Amino acid sequence: MDRSWHEVRLVATAHAVSTFGSFLNLVALGLFVLHLTGSTLQTGAFMAVRLAAGFLAGPVAGRLAGRQRRPYLMIGADLVAAGTLVLLVAAPAGVRNTVLYGLAVALGAGQTIWGVAMRAHLPTMVGPDRLTRANGLVVTLRSVGMLLGFASAGVLVGWLGYHVAFLVDAGTYLLSALLLLPVARRTTAVARPAAAGPAAAGPPTAGLRAPGRFGLLQAVAPVVPAMIAVRAADALGSASHNVGLPVYATLVRPDSPATFAAIFTTAWAAGSLLAGRWAAWRAKRVGRGPSELPFGVATCLMSVCFVLAFTGLPVWLLVPVTLAAGAADGYAEISYTTRLQAVDADLRARLFGFASAAQNAGFGLGMIVCAVLLDRFPPLPVVGAAHGLALAAALTFLVVHVRLRAAARRQPAEVAS
C-alpha cells in the first residue's frame, strides 16, 4: 500500500471518528438543552444557531481552504470543538447557557470548515483515477461513525450522564486531530493535485485576482451550479424526514417510537455504507468514477424511497426501502463530491465553501418550514412535498443534461457533414 493511500485512510478514519462525535452530540446536546432549559423554543434556538453558523462559515471555509494548509484547518476545528465541550462540562451553572450557544457556533462552523477542507484536499492526495475510491471510503467509514454515534448517544446519556457523554465526545475530536497529524506534517503548503490532469494544467494563477461568487459559478457552469442547486433541494428534502421521523415514529409505534426511529436510521446508514463500498469497488474495477447522470438518477431514487418510507409500510418492507434510500443518498453524494473535485484546483476550495453554504441553507430552511408544517399536517404530505421538490429538481437536471449531451454529440456530426 502506497503512502498516499495510507494517508487517505487516515483522513477517512478521522472523518468517521469526527462524525461519530457529531452525531453523538447531535442527540446528547439536544436532550441536554431541553433538560437544562425545559423549553422546546430554547432547544430549537440552539439548533438554529448551529445551522446558521454552518451556513455562514461556508464561504469563509472556502477561502481558508484555498489559502491555508487544509489538514491544519481540520485539526483546528477538532481542537476547538473538543475544548468547547470540556468548557461546557467545567462551566458553572450560571454561565452554562452562554457556553451552550458558543458551543453551537463552534460545532456548526467547525463541521463546515472540516468538511470543506477535507473534500478540497482529497484530490491533492490521490490522482483522479482513485478519487472515486477515496470518496467511497470516506462515505463508508462515515456511515459507520453515524451508526455508532446514534446508537451510543442514548446509552452514554442514560447510563453515565451528560457530563461523561460530553467528555467522550471531546475525546473523539481529539482522536480525530491525532489521526490527522501525520497528514498535516507532510503537507508543507497549500497542496496541488497529486497527479496532474486537465484541471491542473495551464498557467499559474497565484497572482491573479480570484473571481467573485458569481464569477466562480460562471467558471464552472452549467453542470456544477445545477448539481449544487439539486443538492440544496435534496438537503431541504432531507430536513423533512429528519424533522418528521420522531413524529411519524410516535404515530406508528406509540409503544416504542425510539425503536422504530433506530430501525429507520440504521437501515438508512447501512445503505449509505453499502453505496460507499460499491462505488469504491466499481471505480477500482472499471477505472472511472460516476458521472452526472447517475447523480441525478440516485437523487430521484432517494427521494422516492424516503416518501415511500412514510406511507405506513410494515417493518419487513420498510427496512429494504430505507436501505435503498440510504444507498441512493450515499451514491449521489459520492457522484456529487467527485464531480466538484474535478474542477480547476484554484477554484475547488471556494466552490466547496459555496456548495456547503447552499446545502446548509437548504437544510436549515427545510428544518424551519417542515417543523411549522408538521404542527398542521401529518408527516406524509410534509415529507412528500419536500422530497417532491428535490425529485422535481433532479428530474429537471436529468432532462436538461441529457438534451445538452445529445446536442453536443450532434454538433460535431453537423460540422463534419
Automatic annotation (TrEMBL):
CDD domains: MFS_MefA_like. Keywords: Cell membrane, Membrane, Transmembrane, Transmembrane helix. GO terms for cellular component: plasma membrane. PANTHER family: INTEGRAL MEMBRANE EFFLUX PROTEIN-RELATED, STAPHYLOFERRIN A TRANSPORTER. It is a multi-pass membrane protein. Gene3D superfamilies: MFS general substrate transporter like domains (1.20.1250.20). The chain crosses the membrane at residues 12-34, 40-60, 72-93, 99-118, 139-160, 166-184, 258-280, 292-309, 352-374, 380-400. GO terms for molecular function: transmembrane transporter activity. The keyword Zinc does not apply. It holds the Pfam family MFS_1. It comes from Micromonospora pallida. It comes from the Bacteria. It is found in: Cell membrane. This is Predicted arabinose efflux permease, MFS family. SUPFAM superfamilies: MFS general substrate transporter. Its main location: membrane.
